Amino acid sequence: MAQDSYLYALSSNNAWAGYKAHQNPNFFPKLASGQSPQILWLGCSDSRCPETTILGLQPGDVFTHRNVANIVSPTDINTAAVIEYAVAHLRVRHIVLCGHTACGGAAAALASSSDGGGGGGNKRLGGVLDTWLTPLRALRSAHREALDAIADDAARAVRLAELNVEAGVRVLMENEVVREAVRDRGLEVHGCLFDIGSGRIRDLGIGTRPKRTVRGSGTESEEVRGTHGQLVFNGSGASLAVR
Ligand SMILES: [Zn+2]
């Protein structure tokens, strides 16, 4: 790079601010007067997944929490504080938990200490990352057979990223602040996956959106199909079939 990347970023910011103000003189004064975003985005820290940019939205539109591999743990006070502020105070209408293809966290959780994958122990990264990625490794163990059946490394990482989003959505749906808002004012929770290779976001059909059309009988059900599996909702609950 010809120029120091920080200095380049500052000059780029200057140009952007000038362009936005020229385009709409009221843009920054309005932005400075307060925020009322309708979306809380929980995503990965990956530089290729900047939520506002990939959604084609603007500053002020999306309240955000991103961490390595978009892991939602019930005991993580950082994530919990962001959720509570967004849901109880900003009163967002949607929570979007979004994983992505080619996630380094998923690849690391799939990496084995022995070559060839599958049979070996976890490959250690050192530092705090092994601890942080523990939930992903637990998912890997719980779904080892299905994951090992996927021959392609990239596809296996995508499947683990999907499973991670599903697990995170389950945690969100058990969060008391979220449960109250879903019940009292129709807050919606969505799980999706960003395909870096195409720029498209794919809704995984999980969260509050699936409608439980039938109660009690269990004779009718609704199916939500994903790339590698299908969720079946019936009167008694939901199940995931992985192919
Ligand atoms: Zn990632």
UniProtKB/TrEMBL annotation:
It is an enzyme of class 4 (lyase). SMART domains: Pro_CA. Pfam families: Pro_CA. Zn(2+) binds at residues 44, 46, 100, 103. GO terms for cellular component: cytoplasm. One of its GO terms (biological process) is cellular response to oxidative stress. It catalyses: hydrogencarbonate + H(+) = CO2 + H2O. Its cofactor is Zn(2+). Reversible hydration of carbon dioxide. This is Carbonic anhydrase.
